Amino acid sequence: MSETTVTRRGTAAGGAGGVGKRSGRSAEGRAELRRDLVRAAVDLFTARGYDDTTVDDIAAAAGVGRRTFFRYFAGKEDAVSPDHELGLARIAEVFETAHPAEPLLPLTLRAGETVFDLYLSEPDTARKRFALVHAVPALRDREAAMVHHYRRLFTRELTARLSGVEDGDLRAAVTAAAVVAAHNQALRRWLADGGTAEGVPACVVHFRKVADLLPLHEGPDLEQVTRRLEQVARALER
């Protein structure tokens, strides 16, 4: 973090010190400011509890005012999440800019992988975030809603590419659900393995194992698609 861009925020446990001016005018500056707000929120929720932390507390710990906080988040429940708008935009861009000849299976995996760094680029924050989402219903509901947005985006992109293919809409729906579920399962495995930066490559490798379960290969009929869906469901129950 460059001191020319951002004034260092206050203590992780929630002191109001460290308030200062910062620049959020550039895209890089805005992204850095958002990360500081997320770190402040995660640290405060962890130290004080979600219900006992206010928007003013988060803003003060990040070194900004209340109005600045609301330029980035609608409420404190949003301040813990990764930048889902960026994640969705990345996935859409992968599909929009893909070469027409690129096979659909690697394209789909490539799109899914673009979101990992939003969760894993800061392991300490990621570990705390996952613990909070598990413990706080409001945060859990927020993440569940975002899962739906990712699944809907994949379904829309895949349906467009599978038009004219037998059971194309079913294949798209199954693939979208499986890719998003595999992404979440890989993240949970990463956490179980310690949630370290060194474990990130293995997390991505684990995610890619979903490829063999997806109905995007040439030739599978509806019965095979259904069997793959059942395989995904059983794998997620383990």
Please, could you describe this protein's structure?
The chain has 238 residues and is an all-alpha fold. The protein has eleven helices and no strands. Helix content is 65%, strand content 0%. The longest helix is centred in the middle third of the chain and has 25 residues, at 137-161. The chain is elongated and about 55 Å long.
Q: Figure out the total of helices.
A: 11
Straight-line distance between termini: 40 Å
Helix content: 55-70%
Please tell me what the overall shape is: elongated
CA-based gyration radius? 20 Å
Structural class based on helices, strands and sheet pairing: mainly alpha
Average pLDDT number: 85
- List low-pLDDT spans: 1-21
Biggest β-sheet, characterized? none
Strand proportion, as a percent range, falls in under 5%
Number of strands: 0
Output the helix-strand order: HHHHHHHHHHH
Question: How would you summarize what this structure contains?
Answer:
The chain has helices spanning 27-48, 55-62, 66-72, 84-97, 104-113, 116-120, 123-135, 137-161, 168-192, 200-208, 222-237.
Q: What attributes does this structure have?
A:
single chain, 238 residues, mainly alpha, 11 helices, 0% strand, elongated, disordered N terminus
